[in-house]
Amino acid sequence: MFLKRQLPLLITLICGIVWGVQYFIPHPASDAVYSFYTDWALVIGLFAAILGFISIIRLHSMKIKYHAKNWQFSVVTLAAMPVMIVAALLTGTESG
């Protein structure tokens, strides 16, 4: 139970404290720690996005395969995913 609930909360707490301290105490050492955590946050975020993408595909493909309740919405979901990915890639990440 510790690995499922307390450990993720502990990691989140530590990262939040580190980012908060870096904001209020601008120092070269804290900037280095902030940069390190930001780089790892990108890696973890990318891994989570890929895992979520695979999970959604598996869940909705099973609903379609076995004609589960409201399986038609799963078809719409799977059809909309590539459209959203292409739209995100075409628009980029610039604000405004």
Describe the structure.
This protein is 85% helix and 0% strand. The protein is mostly helical and 96 residues long. The chain has one domain (2-91). The model has no long low-confidence stretch (mean pLDDT 89).
Q: Secondary-structure blueprint of this entry?
A:
Layout: H1 2-24, H2 28-65, H3 71-91
Number of strands: 0
Rg, Å, rounded: 19 Å
Give average pLDDT, whole number. 89
The domain count comes to 1
Question: Could you spell the SSE succession in H and E letters?
Answer: HHH
SSE class: mainly alpha
Residue share in helices? over 70%
Q: Unreliable stretches, pLDDT < 50, 5 or more residues?
A: none
Shape: elongated
User: End-to-end distance, in Å?
Assistant: 44 Å
Oligomer: single chain
Biggest beta sheet attributes: none
Tally of DSSP helical segments: 3
Strand content: under 5%
Provide a quick synopsis of the model:
This protein is mainly α and 96 residues long. It contains 3 helices and no strands.
Which properties best describe this structure?
single chain, 96 residues, mainly alpha
